[in-house]
Amino acid sequence: MAMFLMFFISCTNEELIPHDPDGPVLNQGRVVFNVNTGKNMVYTRASADDEQAIRSLGVFIVKPDGNLAEGITRFYEAKALTDKKLAVSIPVDIMETPGVKAYLVANGPDKTQCDGLKTEQELLDLAAVIKPEE
């Protein structure tokens, strides 16, 4: 469960999902988070049990050069969820940059680890050693 959600988006001007997902998409699991940059919208899904097990979330925005964007809050406790939503402020200039990626890691690194990461590779290396049973 440690890395219950990890997703990746490329924030170009392409509209990935222009409206709410249809029934078959929703039947794959609850819509837990969506990323809406104004240009793109991406949904991630999980079971209700997995959603209830969230204790913390790490949000990581990766610039095209492979470095993590600075000045964005990376660590959130579950209590930061409002109506099962997490508000994350990401500067428009970053999200409108072609090739930007976003990762969401649940129950993974703590605040110190999140803040200490500098590159996408460091994030992937850390995520690879997270044990699901934790």
Automatic annotation (TrEMBL):
Protein name: Uncharacterized protein
